[in-house]
Amino acid sequence: MSRTQPPMSRGSFFASIALVGATALTLLALAGCGKTDGTAKAQTSAVKPQVAIPFKIGIMTGTVSQGEDEFRAGQMVVAKYGADHVKMVTYPDNFMQEQETVISQLVGLSSDPDVKVIVVGQAVPGTVAAVRKIREKRPDILIGMIEAHEDPDIVNATADISIQPDQLARGRTIVDVAHKMGVTDLVHYSFPRHMSMELLARRRDIMKQACAADGIKFHFVTAPDPMGEGGLPATQQFVMEDVPRELKQYGPKTAFFSTNCGMMDPMIRTVLNGGGYVPEQCCPSPTHGYPTALGIAIPPDKAGDFAYINAENKRVIAEHHMTGHFATWPVPEVMLSIRAVTDLLVDAAEKKANYKDPATVKASMEEHAGVPITLSKYDEKKGNSYLFLVSNIYY
Questions:
Q1: CATH: 3.40.630.10, 3.40.50.11400, 2.30.110.10, 3.40.50.280. Which one for 11-166+333-394?
Q2: pTM of the full predicted structure?
Q3: Bridge partners of residue 222, in order along the sequence
Q4: I need a surface site. Which of 58, 189, 269, 357 has the fewest CB within 10 A?
């Protein structure tokens, strides 16, 4: 697919998400992010739902500190369908050590007999076990998984629908972007826990091969796991200290990539001020690391307006004389996936759509994205897991 993104129209995604965004920002302020009980409550009595449904939706996302795009997506679902029809919970930040909490939170959503759809994004470890428990008592619930962390074959056999970026194809496309930027070296940060995930490990190997084919030197650097002893602060401190080291060793044409969301802010910030390139984040999005790293305050009336956000990202980067050093997707991939899958399963529960039809899934994703996507099945013969790509934009 082409790696050059044409001038972006606002499209249906930008129009709808801007409408919901201001409401979602209000909900976010009221929500009490990352509560210890895992709930994400919002005072929404004054907000009129945009769509009326005769049942409830259960949704689980990360907290703002774990993944702001996915949390915002959950709040947008609340804004669209109404607080009385959406039960939203968050998984714990330390989800690897608290998988029982992940399971209990997710299973708890199914205890309400009115819940007919459950969407999990990201589907962290423990999700498969929770879904199996739900199936035992509530086989009627339609379940969607976004960016599942567990074995892809098991996820394909467990979820009604699963969607994530095409990680294997990204092994090639991320290097394509880096090559267009003119880089000589690419530093790949990760840690053993992520490298035990099949798709991430295979993507790393593809990136290494693609770099060799394009004359780029590939360097794998082991960073502290944010789930480890030092937590996320230790990981972020490492990135801020190591990026300058790598630039000193390999030169200013060095690009950086990481498998971890928490590394994005310090990586972008350090590259912005010290040189280097960021061809794409682990979860490509205009809001994943960029606004915070660039010091951009998004006004409430522009929340969710990604044409505006992309323009602001580009403006600040230009002010730092770093134009051409950064790239991403024009829409937040996890936000797009959560919203599209939720709407698709709601329509399916009302017998208005067939979530098992690839053409229907692609149409739903593109309707929400407002830009073309490339969609493929993980397994053409069975299951309903999908992989997708969106063309890059350059800042």
A1: 3.40.50.11400
A2: 0.77
A3: 190
A4: 357
